[in-house]
Amino acid sequence: GLERCRAIDLPIVHDPRGNLTFIESNRHVPFDIKRVYYLYDVPGGAERGGHAHKNLEQLLIAMSGSFDVILDDGLAKQTFSLNRSYRGLYIERLVWREIVNFSSGAVCMVLASDFYDETDYYRDYDEFIKAVRGTVPVG
Ligand code: T46
What we know:
- By secondary structure, this protein is mainly beta.
- Helix content is 6%, strand content 40%.
- The longest helix is centred in the last third of the chain and has 9 residues, at 125-133.
- The protein starts with 5 loop residues before the first strand and ends in a 6-residue tail after the last helix.
């Protein structure tokens, strides 16, 4: 659920030559990293996400620019604003996510616990709610 989703501050090696951040599987993220992908060249006003995962866990990082992530576990919603390259948002399984308000030049890097698998997605909100609540939403 939502209570396990959180911002994770990653290590920063400060240096007059520029800062360095690193991420190690099962140390800074609570899973084995099996895939990395990123969203970039997002046009103004575009929204991404609009789905939940049956098993996948992910860490989202704003490598550049900013965006907002709206999380929904079927019981509550919470919005996180990401705008630092040393801070990740950990998203647990069975959490609906929408990514909105991309700034120009924003890059969203995602570390994922598994390979891409379309059968791991809930892309229909009612189907997701039915899975987490055992009932369909009213109205
Ligand atoms: C998520 C948010 C943050 C692949 O072929 N391989 C991949 O690893 C991914 C992520 C996607 N795709 C294909 C599947 C679709 O045909 O790329 C197309 C666009 O994927 P989607 O509409 O799922 O993109 P987003 O940005 O809405 O969602 C993605 C991830 O799918 C999702 O897990 O949490 O980014």
